[in-house]
Design a protein that fits this description.
With 457 residues, this protein is of the alpha/beta class. The chain has four domains: 136 residues, Methylthiotransferase, N-terminal domain (Rossmann fold); 117 residues, Transcription Regulator spoIIAA (2-Layer Sandwich), CATH 3.30.750.210; 114 residues, Transcription Regulator spoIIAA (2-Layer Sandwich), CATH 3.30.750.200; 56 residues, Nucleic acid-binding proteins (OB fold (Dihydrolipoamide Acetyltransferase, E2P)). 35% of the residues lie in helices and 22% in strands. The strands form six sheets. It has a six-stranded mixed sheet with strand order 1-2-3-4-5-6, with helices on both faces. Helix 12 runs parallel beside helix 14.
């Protein structure tokens, strides 16, 4: 998933006047959360906020390295900002996040328009880095940490409607999937103190937000054991978050199939305000490919977890990630992915062609031997099947009534609003007297390719 969030303004003593900064965020929800932390850190140090890159004295790009096309998009943006620097020589450009961590100081050599880089664990140093860059030095900090969680930082929320907020509960990943660069760009797993998470959640709810999403590369592996105390796992944490208020919706992302326990499923079923939506990346339907990917489960193990979800939470929606064209993937492996999709009947999926990432196990030990033409054809088949499954899912919702949390105005009509069901499905409905943050019951009357259509009941 890729999204762009534009924000922010900063001021540094080494720059003249009252400098402004602008930030663009690429990649996952974790990057969005990180950008909110960055803004908070910089504001604590006297920086200000602008939504215009053209009036900025400093531009920061929070980057993603999960796929090559994400990095190429970022390089394209740097070319645009290079032209900005020609018109405004004092402009500073910084690259932060996963791409900065992956390429390190090499990035400063490759991209002459970049003045500073900062990895995901070095955001506290940004004021110093910006100051150093303002004096004409190339500045960098890409050290990974075994402890940094930014637990004491109150993020500046980007959500204008104050409906939904992200809370990062842990950082890093220990899974070492063969294709994935995340453990190398975000370091090893470390969990936040649960009290800091609960305090942040209460703060968010008391300031008017109606929904929180607990974030982690693998939230199910959250673990905190205080000195002399009992261990708190993810199941216990999400239960404590849900108990803050029945009016607060609670979501989480992303789950790893090897860690999604029966206890967690029973807790989700028990609390109405824990959303009945689970994103469970499968990546492939072939046990052979899953073993090559080092996913730590096989086809049968994954399907056993799917059966447990459907038995314990019958109304739960299930979404997934799928990679096609991984090293040595055969037509039989591909067919196993298609058959698994049909069996699970996913409501939604993120689907990609395999993109070899430098430094990963696959890049070092496996050959990317599937032709692009074959990858493209297999991806098309997967997308076509998922479109069919998504259509069936929408058809089954027609005539049903769901509780919907209003999020904002429909893009197609000012007379309509949109919101999400507990299953994370988007519903568009007449505006009436409703406003963002309200709950309503909507009967589903129809659907488009992207959304459900509803009426207020």
């Amino acid at each position: 998933m890729e999204n762009i969030i534009n924000s922010a303004n900063l001021g540094i003593d080494s720059l003249v006047g009252n400098p402004k900064f602008y930030i663009e965020t690429y990649g996952c929800q974790m990057n969005v959360s990180d950008s909110e932390v960055v803004v908070s850190i910089l504001q604590r140090n006297g920086f200000q906020l602008t939504n215009s890159s053209k009036e900025a004295d400093l531009i920061l790009i929070n980057t993603c390295s999960i796929r090559d096309n994400a990095e190429q998009r970022i390089r394209g943006r740097l070319n645009v900002f290079k032209q900005f620097k020609k018109k405004k020589p004092s402009l500073l450009v910084g690259v932060i996040g996963c791409m900065a961590e992956r390429l390190k100081e090499k990035f400063l050599e490759e991209e002459k328009s970049v003045d500073l880089i900062a990895g995901p664990d070095s955001y506290r140093d940004l004021p110093k880095l910006v100051k150093s860059a303002g004096y004409g030095f190339q500045a960098s900090n890409v050290l990974l940490s075994f402890e940094e969680t930014y637990a004491d930082i109150s993020p500046v929320r980007f959500e204008e409607n104050k409906v939904s907020a992200f809370i990062s509960i842990m950082r890093g990943c220990n899974n070492m999937c063969a294709y994935c660069v995340v453990p190398y760009t975000r370091g090893s797993e470390r969990s936040r103190d649960p009290e800091s998470i609960l305090n942040e959640t209460r703060e968010i709810f008391n300031s008017g937000f109606s929904e929180v999403t607990l974030l982690g590369q693998n939230v199910n592996s959250y673990s905190w054991k205080p000195d002399g105390g009992n261990q708190i796992n993810f199941t216990k944490l999400i239960e404590r978050v849900a108990k803050i208020s029945p009016l607060l919706r609670v979501r989480f992302a992303t789950s790893h199939p090897k860690d999604i326990s029966d206890d967690l499923l029973h807790t989700i079923a028990l609390y109405p305000n824990i959303c009945k939506s689970i994103h469970l990346p499968v990546q492939s339907g072939s046990s052979r490919i899953l073993k090559l990917m080092n996913r730590k489960y096989d086809r049968e193990g994954y399907l056993e977890r799917i059966e447990a979800i459907k038995k314990t939470i019958p109304e739960c929606s299930i979404s997934t990630d799928i990679i096609t064209g991984f090293c040595t993937e055969t037509e039989e492996d591909h067919k196993e992915t298609l058959s698994l999709m049909n069996f699970v009947n996913y409501d939604f999926a993120y689907m990609f062609k395999y993109s070899e990432r430098p430094g990963t196990y696959a890049e070092r030990h496996l050959k990317d031997d599937i032709q692009e033409e074959i990858k493209g054809r297999r991806l098309t088949e997967i997308i076509n099947l998922q479109n069919k499954l998504s259509l069936q899912s929408k058809q089954m919702d027609v005539g049903k009534t769901f509780e919907v949390l209003v999020e904002g105005t429909s893009k197609k009509s000012k007379d309509e609003l949109f919101g999400r069901t507990t299953q994370n499905k988007v519903v568009v409905f007449p505006k009436g007297e409703l406003k963002p943050g309200d709950y309503l019951n909507a009967e589903i009357t129809g659907f488009t390719s992207a959304t459900l259509k509803g009426k207020v009941v």
